[in-house]
Each structure stands twice: as structure tokens, then as C-alpha cells.
Design goal:
The protein has about 250 residues and is an alpha+beta fold. The chain folds into two domains: about 80 residues, OB fold (Dihydrolipoamide Acetyltransferase, E2P) (Beta Barrel), CATH 2.40.50; about 170 residues, Recombination protein O, C-terminal domain (de novo design (two linked rop proteins)), CATH 1.20.1440. It is about 40% helix and about 25% strand. The strands form two sheets. A five-stranded mixed beta barrel has the order 1-2-3-5-4. The chain has a three-stranded antiparallel sheet with strand order 7-6-8. The protein starts with a strand and ends with a helix. The protein binds zinc ion.
């Protein structure tokens, strides 16, 4: 039985029988995996205090033909300040749920782990910025997974969008330049929305700029609203049922 050591952030916990638990972790080196933790719910379990949602764990696991088994673990980072702030905690819970919903198991992608770890670390230090970080996390995750338009080129002719405005086709989630819009007669029956130049620039900037540099930008309240609006449009395109964590976002 060969044992492996990994680090990862806990995305989901689910009871398994009387004493065991499924623990879903986004790891640095293996992508998302779900481990069975035997005896975890017993009071005597040394691992129990470490296995909490959002904790960054250092853990040992081994793999049978069908399952991973978590054996030893310690907490590397528990994001204590973030968890003390209910609004920041609700944002972080939303982030791990969307990551869980949008990714498959056993697909290694260290940049997604880094995006999650960096985003949570920033909220830990600046809990008051949780909404902006949450929405930037969503846009960057969708961009990385190829689920969002780059807000730079026309989806039909692939030309760079002109410095005026663009049209968003709600039917196929495509961005159109003015000339494709005018050339396509079939567009007349479509549900279109205008995207302003400010929004095009904002979304493109978020997608291409590293997270740490984005913190220095001076966002206004309507920027956050716009980022949130476009993030949700492309998120729901990829979800078949609602998120459990979303209602709490509007409570705090
Ligand atoms: Zn075009």
C-alpha cells in the first residue's frame, strides 16, 4: 500500500455511515479528489479537528482500485479571520461550491489551486474586500476553464472588438461586433443586450491581469455590480441546478 502526501483545500464534506466521511479536497498536485476518511466522526479521531470546510490541509492518502483513503492530516492554514466574519465566510463558501461544481475529479491543475489559495489568503487579510475577490475569483475561474468569452474579440468574425460597444447574444452566449450584428438578419429575432465599452474593458482587464495586481485597482460600486452581473450570466450557463451557498450572499 503506497501512501502519498498532498496539500489541498477542503471543498465538501459528506457523512458516510456512522463514523466515516467523504472529504472532497482541491489539491495542489492532483486536482480535485474525494477521499474516504474512516472513523473520522469518532470523538477520539485525531484528524477530526483538522477536517473542516475551507481548511488547507497537509494530508496523507492512499488509493485502492476505486477510492482514495485519507489517513493522516494536519492543518496548514485554517483562515481563522475569514471564518470569524460571516459575510466573508459566505463568500468563501460560495467560492468553494462553484469550484466544486465546475470541476471534475482527478484533473490536475495547479493554477486553479493557486487561484483558490490566493483568493482565500487575500480575504483572510482583507475580509472587507470579500465581495470583489469572490467575483474576481468567479470570472478568473470561468476564464481558466474556457467558460467565458474573452471580451476582446467578436465570437463570429474573431476580429478585435471596436472601441465602441458590442452586443451580447443571450441565446448562444456570444459577443458580436457591430458589423456582424448588422450582417446577420437572423439576429433580428434574438435576445440581445448591449455591452458598453467600459464593461468590455473591465471584464477583459480582470481576465488578463494577475489577481494580486487587481487589488490595486480603484473599483467603484457599479464596477462590482457589472463584474457580478457578467460572472453570473456565464456561471449559470454551466450549472444545471442552483447553488446552495448563493442565498446567504444577500443576507450578510
Ligand atoms: Zn464580428
Amino acid at each position: 500500500m503506497r501512501s502519498f502526501t498532498s496539500s489541498g483545500i477542503i471543498l465538501r464534506l459528506k457523512s458516510l455511515g456512522e463514523a466515516d466521511r467523504f472529504v472532497t479536497i482541491y489539491t495542489r498536485d492532483r486536482g480535485k479528489i474525494t477521499c474516504i476518511a474512516k472513523g473520522l466522526r469518532s470523538i477520539k479521531s485525531r484528524r477530526n479537528p483538522h477536517v473542516e470546510l475551507l481548511n488547507l490541509l497537509r494530508f496523507q492518502h492512499w488509493k485502492s482500485a476505486h477510492h482514495y483513503y485519507l489517513t493522516e492530516c494536519t492543518t496548514e492554514e485554517s483562515f481563522r479571520e475569514l471564518k470569524k466574519d460571516l459575510a466573508a465566510l459566505s463568500s468563501a463558501t460560495f467560492m468553494i461550491e462553484i469550484l466544486d461544481r465546475l470541476t471534475e475529479e482527478d484533473q490536475n491543475d495547479e493554477s486553479i489551486f493557486n487561484l483558490l489559495e490566493n483568493s482565500l489568503s487575500i480575504i483572510e487579510f482583507y475580509p472587507q474586500n470579500h465581495e470583489l475577490i469572490r467575483e474576481i475569483f468567479l470570472i478568473k475561474l470561468l476564464g481558466h476553464l474556457g467558460h467565458i468569452n474573452n471580451f476582446r474579440t467578436c465570437s463570429y468574425c474573431r476580429e478585435k472588438l471596436p472601441a465602441t460597444l458590442a452586443y451580447f447574444n443571450k441565446k448562444d452566449y456570444a459577443l458580436s461586433c457591430e458589423s456582424c450584428f448588422k450582417n446577420k438578419q437572423s439576429f433580428l429575432n434574438l435576445d440581445l443586450e448591449i455591452i458598453t465599452l467600459e464593461n468590455l474593458k473591465l471584464m477583459h482587464f480582470i481576465l488578463k491581469t494577475p489577481l494580486t495586481k487587481l487589488l490595486k485597482i480603484n473599483t467603484r460600486p457599479h464596477h462590482l455590480q457589472n463584474i457580478q452581473q457578467w460572472g453570473r450570466v456565464f456561471l449559470y450557463k454551466n450549472l444545471s441546478y442552483p447553488l446552495n451557498s448563493e442565498p446567504a450572499l444577500s443576507i450578510y
